[in-house]
């Protein structure tokens, strides 16, 4: 109980910090909901929070349909249309934009809710970087996402990283639209 | 592997009789040509064919029996020998289409030397192919056309037509031009040509496997079956092993395939080792330099090939990756973005004397040339893609070898320093090409699938 509370506090702090950080330059892009004080929920706006069946103090009314969809899905099904959204990067950059942070806040909420998941964060690059350096740039992107998630209270042991450089483009095209899709940190649920 | 029995020894001293082609040098203004290569020195620069190079004729090798196998072997040897000799551009060639006007010799004793003289041939490479119980016996003689004398005779036993030719080419280059040819060297690269998909939870990912081939792209053979990403292969100096980056354990780790024994060594093991990329062999083959995130971010390390004796070389919060050894084994060049963009740096193997070598907008994959050249080739961003550039470490000057035809990456030198293997998208997909060190004589090596990160055996 105590632990849960302090985690909740931590999350709240982190979320607040984020909101402040976001508020600096980009006006009201920041997170729409301030973290509610009672037990661990950061109440993300979009995925309507399917609850973990057991253990944790449940604060959100269960949404049985969603719950079933995620809980009952196989890993393959889950990852094909992952509930964890990727974050996208600028050329040659591993900086997390405000939009990235918002996405990661939502991903973090899901990862917390499904507390048995372990997640691999893949770093990917577009083909405009060199094959070799991109291995390291992809790692930097995956690490940026991982570090942020850990700051939101996700246990480091649940988050692995791997960089694929430009080896596995999501879009095989050679234009900016394709490149933008290929510069990403991509989440794969590796056990549930 | 076919073993050759060399039954006739070097004809040393006959080199003096070799006619200098300069006397004939027809079309090119002789004053602008560099002096002809002395047989005792290695070429420092390469000029196009013609001019200074001895002019050779290579009529089809004579099949001593008319069975299809012998005839085919004679034909293959002739064609491959031509290509091999042409590759180093040390000789000029009498074009094959004029050979038909000359009566065909049936043995070494009825060669119409006067006719070859009319065609301005300096040298004549002739050969016979005889079927024997173990395969073939091939005799090759290099004649001085002017004197009608044999200057270099060899005899080989074996069964592989291409290897006969490769060996002849290397020996002719060595004896006539004091040059270490590359006809028996090999390439390695990774390829997605098999169209196999990675197993696991993310669909539609094409795996890559390690391939080897002869230097000319023949005999392309797959050497890994990891069904995962196996990338960036590097030949060991003895040509018996290939080190590469493999994801078969999930993350990236270093593996060594000992290709003739069929064994696999795992260099980076354990779950606390982070990601490990891009092994590069020390010149003596005992160590690997590589990049690893084991201490938090990509740094350069050196490790013994059995995984022992790990030593960290760099210490910087930015990315350090893609190491390559100097030929002396005393320095490492690598890519770092510590200045804000990826650039080439050099550091001693003791971690001292770091210096920045490039000021490009973005560059990567440094590859140190073999001696006597003292150069680092790399890929530099230029326009939308990359071009291959070479930095002369003595003069500090950089020159481009490719000029925006597709994107050009991942250069590696041939062991004699006269050629570079690299990848290019100039023909569509990413393919392996070779070119001479002046950027000329570009040859496409691969055609199937996409092919990446080549290396050239020593």
Radius of gyration of chain A: 17 Å
- Provide the residue-averaged pLDDT of chain B: 89
- Structure classification of chain A: alpha+beta
Remind me, CATH topology of the largest domain in chain B?
Answer: Neuraminidase
Question: What CATH first level of the largest domain in chain B would be assigned?
Answer: Mainly Beta
CATH architecture type of the largest domain in chain B = 6 Propeller
Number of separate strands of chain B: 30
CATH fold naming of the domain at 64-191 in chain A: 60s Ribosomal Protein L30, Chain: A
Q: What is the number of beta strands of chain A?
A: 4
**Which outline of chain B best applies?**
elongated
Strand residues, percent of chain A:
5-15%
The number of helical runs of chain B is 3
Folded structure, characterized:
The complex is a heterodimer of chains A (192) and B (458). Chain A is of the alpha+beta class. Chain A has helices at 2-25, 64-72, 75-80, 98-113, 131-151, 176-182, and strands spanning 87-88, 118-123, 159-163, 184-191. Chain A has a four-stranded mixed sheet with strand order 1-4-2-3. Chain A starts with a helix and ends with a strand. Chain B is elongated and about 75 Å long. Chain B has helices at 68-88, 113-118, 161-177, and strands spanning 55-57, 62-63, 92-93, 123-132, 135-144, 149-158, 186-191, 209-214, 221-222, 230-235, 241-249, 251-258, 263-266, 276-281, 287-292, 299-304, 311-312, 320-325, 331-336, 343-348, 355-356, 363-368, 375-382, 385-392, 398-400, 408-413, 419-424, 431-436, 443-444, 451-456. In chain B, helix 1 runs parallel beside helix 3. Chain B has three helices and 30 strands. Chain B has two domains: 14-177, Rossmann fold, CATH 3.40.50.10070; 186-456, 6 Propeller (Neuraminidase), CATH 2.120.10.30. Classes of the chains: A alpha+beta (192), B mainly beta (458). The interface between A and B is large, with 30 and 42 residues.
């Amino acid at each position: 109980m105590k632990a849960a509370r302090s985690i909740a506090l931590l999350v709240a702090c982190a979320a607040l910090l984020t909101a402040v950080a976001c508020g600096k330059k980009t006006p009201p892009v920041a997170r729409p909901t301030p973290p509610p004080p009672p037990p661990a929920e950061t109440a993300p706006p979009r995925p309507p929070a399917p609850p973990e069946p057991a253990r944790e103090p449940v604060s959100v009314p269960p949404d049985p349909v969603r719950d079933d969809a995620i809980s009952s899905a196989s890993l393959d099904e889950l990852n094909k249309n992952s509930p964890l959204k990727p974050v996208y990067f600028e050329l040659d950059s591993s900086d997390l934009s405000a939009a990235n942070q918002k996405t990661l806040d939502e991903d973090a909420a899901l990862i917390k809710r499904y507390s048995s998941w372990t997640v691999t964060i893949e770093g990917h690059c577009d083909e405009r970087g060199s094959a070799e350096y991109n291995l390291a740039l992809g790692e930097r992107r995956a690490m940026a996402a991982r570090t942020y998630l850990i700051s939101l209270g996700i246990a480091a042991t649940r988050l692995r990283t791997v960089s694929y450089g430009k080896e596995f483009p999501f879009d095989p095209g050679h234009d900016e639209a394709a490149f933008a899709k290929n510069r990403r940190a991509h989440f794969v649920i590796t056990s549930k | 592997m076919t073993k050759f029995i060399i039954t006739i020894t070097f004809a040393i001293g006959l080199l003096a009789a070799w006619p200098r082609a300069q006397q004939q040098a027809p079309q090119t203004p002789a004053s602008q040509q560099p002096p002809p290569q002395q047989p005792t020195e290695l070429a420092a620069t390469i000029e196009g064919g013609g001019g200074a190079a001895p002019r050779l004729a290579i009529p089809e090798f004579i099949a001593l029996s008319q069975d299809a196998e012998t005839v085919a072997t004679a034909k293959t040897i002739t064609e491959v020998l031509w290509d091999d000799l042409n590759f180093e551009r040390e000789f000029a060639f009498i074009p094959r289409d004029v050979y038909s006007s000359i009566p065909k010799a049936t043995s070494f004793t009825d060669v119409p030397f006067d006719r070859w003289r009319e065609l301005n041939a300096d040298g004549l490479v002739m050969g016979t192919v005889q079927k024997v119980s173990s395969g073939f016996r091939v005799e090759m003689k290099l004649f001085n056309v002017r004197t009608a004398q044999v200057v270099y005779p060899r005899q080989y036993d074996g069964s592989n037509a291409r290897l006969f030719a490769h060996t002849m080419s290397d020996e002719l280059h060595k004896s006539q031009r004091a040059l270490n040819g590359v006809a028996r060297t090999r390439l390695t690269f990774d390829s997605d040509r098999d169209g196999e998909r990675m197993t696991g939870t993310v669909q539609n990912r094409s795996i890559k496997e390690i391939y080897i081939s002869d230097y000319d792209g023949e005999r392309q053979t797959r050497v890994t079956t990891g069904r995962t990403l196996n990338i960036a292969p590097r030949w060991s100096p003895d040509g018996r092993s290939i080190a590469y980056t493999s994801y078969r354990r999930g993350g990236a780790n270093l593996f060594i395939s000992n290709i003739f024994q069929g064994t696999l060594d795992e260099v980076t093991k354990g779950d606390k080792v982070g990601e490990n990329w891009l092994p590069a062999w020390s010149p003596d083959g005992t160590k690997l330099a590589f990049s690893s995130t084991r201490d938090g971010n990509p740094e350069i390390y050196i490790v013994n090939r059995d995984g022992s004796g790990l030593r960290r070389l760099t210490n910087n919060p930015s990315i350090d990756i893609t190491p390559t050894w100097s030929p002396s084994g005393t320095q490492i060049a690598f890519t770092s973005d510590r200045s804000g963009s990826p650039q080439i740096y050099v550091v001693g193997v003791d971690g001292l004397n770091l210096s920045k070598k490039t000021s490009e907008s973005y560059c990567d994959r440094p590859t140190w040339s073999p001696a006597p050249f003292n150069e680092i080739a790399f890929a530099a961003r230029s326009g939308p893609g990359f071009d291959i550039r070479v930095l002369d470490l003595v003069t500090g000057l950089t020159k481009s070898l490719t000029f925006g035809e597709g994107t050009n990456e991942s250069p590696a030198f041939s062991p004699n320093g006269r050629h570079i293997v690299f990848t290019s998208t100039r023909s569509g997909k990413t393919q392996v090409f070779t070119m001479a060190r002046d950027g000329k004589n570009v040859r496409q090596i691969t055609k199937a699938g996409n092919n990446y990160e080549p290396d050239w055996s020593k």
